[in-house]
């Protein structure tokens, strides 16, 4: 009797074949870890951020934020958050 070998199936995806446990927020495997902001930026990253900030149109960013807030407040249907 022949058996199927999933490892040779070209249509099989590895993530389908071997489900893995992923931890929720604050979890790594089965242990809890402290939340952190991660590593501090390097001097090169800080300088790159300063240079990039000079090219940001704050008025345009503000307009976009207000528009997205308005759209989010008016959403109906799937994804809608009902007030309590």
Write the layout of secondary structure elements.
Blueprint: H1 14-17, E1 27-28, E2 31-32, H2 43-53, H3 58-73
Antiparallel strand pairs: 1-2
Q: Which runs of at least 5 residues are low in confidence (pLDDT < 50)?
A: none
Largest sheet, spatial ordering of strands? 1-2
* Global geometry: flat
Strand content: under 5%
Helical content stands at: 25-40%
Distance between the termini: 60 Å
Q: Helix- and strand-based class?
A: mainly alpha
How many strands?
A: 2
Number of helices: 3
Mean pLDDT: 76
Q: Secondary-structure element order, as H and E?
A: HEEHH
For the biggest sheet, the summary is: 2 strands, antiparallel
Rg: 24 Å
Explain this structure.
- The protein has 84 residues and is mostly helical.
- The protein is 37% helix and 5% strand.
- The protein is built from three helices and two strands.
- The radius of gyration is 24 Å and the shape is flat.
Please sum up the structure shown.
Helix content is 37%, strand content 5%. With 84 residues, it is mostly helical.
